[in-house]
Amino acid sequence: MQMMSSERPACGWLHKLLVLLVKLHFAFAEPLQPLNGTGCTAKGPASYILVFTGHWSPQAFPKQYPLFRPPAQWSKLIAASHNRHFRLWEEGSSASPGVQSFAEVGVTVELMKAAKEARKKRTVGVMYRTAGIPNGIGHSSTEMLMVPRNPLLSLMVKMIPSPDWFVGVNSLNLCDGNRWKQEVTVDLQPYDAGTDSGFTFSSPNFPTSPPENITKITSQMPNHPANSFYYPRLKELPPIASIKITRQRRTPDRQTSISNHILPNSINPQRFSATPLDCEVSLWSSWGLCLGPCSRGGVRHRTRYILLRPANAGSPCPELEEQDECVPHNCIKKRQ
Ligand SMILES: *[C@@H]1O[C@H](CO)[C@@H](O)[C@H](O)[C@H]1NC(C)=O
Ligand SMILES: *[C@@H]1O[C@H](CO)[C@@H](O)[C@H](O)[C@H]1NC(C)=O
Ligand SMILES: [Ca+2]
To answer: Per-residue pLDDT tens for 39-89?
Structure first.
């Protein structure tokens, strides 16, 4: 009787049902839309473990290796699963404000804000992060759940200390047609965000104005002896870091996307590569006073000093002092 007599509750009930139906429509319509671009036709999601390894050792990178305040270390790792309409960062393109603040000072607020916006547009799936590593050598890891509509992975880790240098990958596709890849290993090289002009790890803040685009740092570029990665004898830099992404059987608990577990079986044996570092010396000083008796002629000296000590069997330092015959100043006067 109650249902018959009160029209209003019935009306509200109908309204609720309609809202529910509309919600259901949107919830189920999305996965049924054709996948665009990335062409991942895998049936379901895939669970992965991502291990980041730092290989930034003083043996491999002896030049200006940061030992104190702060010593060499890695920031937290920021990763995003996404489709091809999103870019976290890209070589040859300008750094977004988020990439700039992460690469310069390791702050992730702007990056996360941009990723949230991209999530609303459904170009980003999930953001992951790992803890930082307080050394140049070490590991951090996270579990990831990849879905077919967001099969690309991009990530960044800042090098600390550095002006605006980071390592990362851009749009690594973990899907291969209708299958998820089992294991992917990538060696990482340093990149310059193009927003700070410092040349060395511990250069003071020096904004690049106007900003430049993101470039890869190599043993030859920037082509300047002051640069911390300038090793003219090397054809290419040894990998300063690497990532290993391994597919797992079990489905991860989505709540534990922030984790820092280390999987002993997924850690590469440490690669020993000692980079020879040649001695670098300053320019010669100007010649000193010509000293000596007028009868035998005089001698003058000039000096230079060591800018960079050689390491790992790099070429030794040349002579630091040179002498030259000359006519003492007072002798010229006497002869005249
Ligand atoms: C799908 O991809 C094509 C290029 O392959 C592009 O032109 C089109 O705009 C994309 N559509 C959507 C809805 O993203
Ligand atoms: C720098 O990147 C922007 C896009 O981010 C691009 O339009 C521009 O052409 C790039 N400049 C150079 C010199 O590559
Ligand atoms: Ca720079």
So the answer is: 899 999 999 999 999 999 999 999 999 998 799 999 999 999 999 999 999
Tell me which residue range forms the domain holding 56.
46-266
> Is residue 318 located within the same domain as residue 180?
no
Q: Do residue 188 and residue 246 come from a single domain?
A: yes
Going by pLDDT thresholds of 50, 70 and 90, the confidence category of residue 265 is very low
Q: Which residue's alpha carbon is at the smallest distance from atom 6 of ligand 2?
A: 93
CA distances from 306 to 99, 195, 284, 302 (A): 37, 31, 11, 14
C-beta neighbour count of 264 within 10 angstroms = 6
Q: Using a 6 Å cutoff on CB, does residue 36 contact ligand 1?
A: yes
Q: What is the pLDDT of residue 298?
A: 87
**Nearest residue by C-alpha to atom 3 in ligand 2:** 93
Number of domains in the chain: 2
* 258 and 292 in a common domain: no
User: Does the residue 169 lie in any domain?
Assistant: yes
Helix/strand/coil for 187: strand
> Do 165 and 93 fall within a single domain?
yes
Amino acid at 104: E
Q: What confidence tens digit (pLDDT) does each residue in 116-125 have?
A: 999 999 999 9
- Asked whether residue 124 falls in the same domain as residue 249, the answer is yes
Q: CB of 37 closer than 6 A to ligand 1?
A: yes
CATH number at residue 58: 2.60.40.2130
Model confidence at 189: pLDDT above 70? yes
Can you tell me the distance from the alpha carbon of 105 to that of 89, in angstroms, rounded to the nearest whole number?
16
For position 218, what pLDDT does the model report?
96
d(CA 81, CA 83): 7
Assess contact for 318 and 279: CB atoms under 8 A: yes
Which atom of ligand 2 lies closest to the CA of 90? 5
Proximal ligand: closest to the CA of 207: 3
Tell me what pLDDT residue 308 has.
81
- Using the predicted structure, report yes or no on whether residue 291 has a pLDDT greater than 70: yes
Q: Whose CA is nearest to atom 2 of ligand 2?
A: 93
